[in-house]
């Protein structure tokens, strides 16, 4: 979790949101098979970049490659285990319908499927590490499954399979020592702070981000609001993509529903109801005794982090207080986020107007005035309560984090919107952007494949923010003086 960027042999290469495995959705979307070749472009781009930096490190220097979350898209996968594979955790009815879930053995199967599908990337990562460079995997909301130790072990094993280490124990130990899985963030004192950023987004945040177990079944991880929508609605439904929902209105989703025909519309409505039921189950589960035990475990984990890295526990608690309240933590948030507040308010307004007309409770001229006032009030409520885009919340949280753990560079991902800007005196915020797009979203702009480079040049820290697309690298540079 900690390092020292002031060491003259340290260079940092930081990227985020690669989403390997987001194409493995055939269980819920069997019609996507013809689109899978598009995803291989990510493998070529990422592998070429790894080769480039592996072959162009400064003499006597090594790279620390930090992937700031969502390297593997456990949440977005929809696959089933092969018939000859026996799982320790039996499939639930929901997993039979939507694919393997978040239990440790399910996630291990997923990581192995991703390693087969994206063998080129795993081979290049293994070569990068074998050359003496480090790999740091910060957990994101789509790869929170790295919480499980067996999943971390399986990931390293898949990397080792692309080396010639075999049974050399010392070589295996050296290799494994170069791979790190921070529980929360990666911090270089006064220089660099990296985390994914999803805990500041109410749609993707977990109630207990450090111990993301489900109070419904601690053998599994908790599903966020976004996870539930992804599994129950987005993956199984034609016309839905994983991007851009923060800009959509209820009218957009009604159009998709009607485009599916009567049977398709009814199926979508049924999936929607089941998703809402699951959200309310998640809300109720947070009130249980199990949930309290998980919160106690998170507090214990924070105590361990504080002791291990000599950080004040009060400071860590203040950082946790910056996390967004998850949608599934409040009934009002659930209703708001699935547009039920709009639907119920509109139905209530319509019923009121009908009653006024039916029982002649007022003059007729009053009806259109009440209707206009009601529509205006509902519209105003929607605009004030709906959270459309988390990017501003994440940037503001980055600014406040930098006050608690001072750093020249505060780096996050999650939003898929690359940016580099000042958030305080001597503090630069970088959002890393993304490397992948939904394979069914033809309208989405090509991912910028952006990455951040931090290295020492003539006694100064130099940060370069580079994008591979368009093909000529686009650079933003910031130079920060070091302490010596």
Written overview of the protein:
- This protein has 484 residues and is an alpha/beta fold.
- The protein folds into two domains: 2-206 and 391-481, 4-Layer Sandwich (Purple Acid Phosphatase, chain A, domain 2), CATH 3.60.21; 332-385.
- Helix content is 42%, strand content 15%.
- It contains 15 helices and 15 strands.
- The strands form three sheets. A seven-stranded mixed β-sheet has the order 5-4-3-2-13-14-15. Strands 1-6-7-10-12-11 form a six-stranded mixed β-sheet, covered by helices on one side. It has a two-stranded antiparallel ribbon with strand order 8-9.
- A hairpin with a 2-residue loop joins strand 13 and strand 14.
- Helix 1 (40-55) packs parallel to helix 4 (119-130).
- It is globular, with a radius of gyration of 24 Å.
- The two termini are 23 Å apart.
- Residues 479-484 have low confidence and may be disordered.
Strand order of the largest sheet: 5-4-3-2-13-14-15
- Name of the CATH architecture of the largest domain: 4-Layer Sandwich
CATH class of the largest domain: Alpha Beta
CATH topology of the largest domain, by name, is Purple Acid Phosphatase, chain A, domain 2
Defining traits:
2 domains, 42% helix, 15 helices, seven-stranded mixed beta sheet, globular, 484 residues, single chain, alpha/beta, Purple Acid Phosphatase, chain A, domain 2, six-stranded mixed beta sheet, 15 strands
Write a brief structural summary.
The protein has helices at residues 40-55, 93-98, 104-117, 119-130, 149-160, 169-177, 225-234, 250-259, 261-285, 289-309, 313-320, 331-337, 340-358, 366-385, 391-404, and strands spanning 2-3, 10-15, 62-67, 134-137, 179-180, 186-188, 192-194, 213-214, 217-221, 409-412, 419-424, 427-431, 450-457, 460-467, 474-481. With 484 residues, it is of the alpha/beta class.
């Amino acid at each position: 979790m900690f390092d020292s960027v002031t060491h003259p042999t340290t260079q940092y290469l930081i990227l985020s949101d690669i989403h390997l495995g987001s194409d493995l959705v055939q269980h819920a979307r069997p019609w996507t098979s013809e689109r899978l070749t598009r995803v291989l472009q990510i493998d070529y781009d990422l592998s070429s970049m790894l080769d480039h930096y592996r072959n162009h490190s400064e003499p006597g220097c090594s790279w620390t490659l930090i992937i700031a979350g969502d390297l593997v898209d456990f949440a977005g996968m929809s696959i089933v285990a092969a018939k000859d594979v026996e799982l320790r955790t039996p499939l639930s009815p929901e997993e039979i319908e939507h694919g393997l879930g978040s239990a440790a053995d399910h996630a291990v199967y997923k990581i192995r499927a991703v390693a087969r599908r994206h063998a080129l990337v795993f081979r290049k990562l293994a070569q990068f590490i074998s050359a003496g460079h480090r790999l740091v995997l910060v957990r994101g909301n789509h790869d929170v499954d790295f919480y499980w130790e067996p999943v971390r072990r399986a990931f390293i094993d898949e990397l080792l399979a692309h080396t010639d280490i075999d049974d050399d124990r010392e070589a295996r130990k050296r290799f494994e020592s170069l791979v790190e899985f921070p529980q929360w963030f990666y911090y270089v004192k006064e220089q660099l702070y990296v985390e994914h950023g999803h805990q500041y987004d109410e749609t993707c945040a977990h109630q207990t981000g450090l111990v993301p177990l489900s109070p419904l079944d601690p053998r599994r991880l908790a599903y966020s609001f976004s996870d539930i929508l992804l599994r129950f609605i987005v993956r199984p439904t034609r016309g839905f993509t994983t991007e851009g929902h923060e800009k959509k209105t209820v009218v957009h989703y009604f159009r998709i529903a009607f485009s599916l025909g009567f049977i398709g519309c009814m199926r979508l409505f049924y999936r929607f109801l089941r998703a809402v039921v699951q959200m309310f189950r998640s809300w109720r589960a947070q009130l249980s005794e199990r949930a309290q035990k998980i919160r106690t475990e998170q507090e214990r984990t924070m105590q361990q982090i504080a002791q291990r890295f000599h950080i004040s526990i009060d400071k860590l608690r203040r950082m946790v207080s910056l996390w967004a309240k998850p949608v599934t933590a409040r009934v009002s948030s659930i209703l708001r986020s699935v547009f039920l507040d709009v639907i119920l308010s509109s139905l209530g307004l319509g019923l009121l107007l009908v009653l006024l007309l039916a029982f002649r409770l007022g003059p007729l001229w009053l009806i259109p005035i009440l209707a206009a006032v009601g529509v205006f009030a509902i519209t105003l409520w929607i605009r004030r309560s709906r959270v459309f885009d988390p990017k501003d919340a994440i940037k503001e949280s980055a600014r406040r984090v930098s006050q608690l753990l001072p750093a020249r560079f505060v780096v996050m991902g999650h939003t898929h919107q690359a940016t580099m800007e000042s958030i305080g005196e001597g503090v630069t915020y970088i959002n890393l952007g993304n490397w992948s797009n939904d394979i069914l979203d033809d309208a989405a702009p090509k991912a910028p494949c952006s990455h951040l480079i931090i290295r020492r040049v003539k006694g100064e820290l130099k940060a370069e923010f580079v994008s591979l697309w368009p093909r000529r690298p686009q650079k933003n540079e910031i130079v920060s003086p070091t302490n010596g």
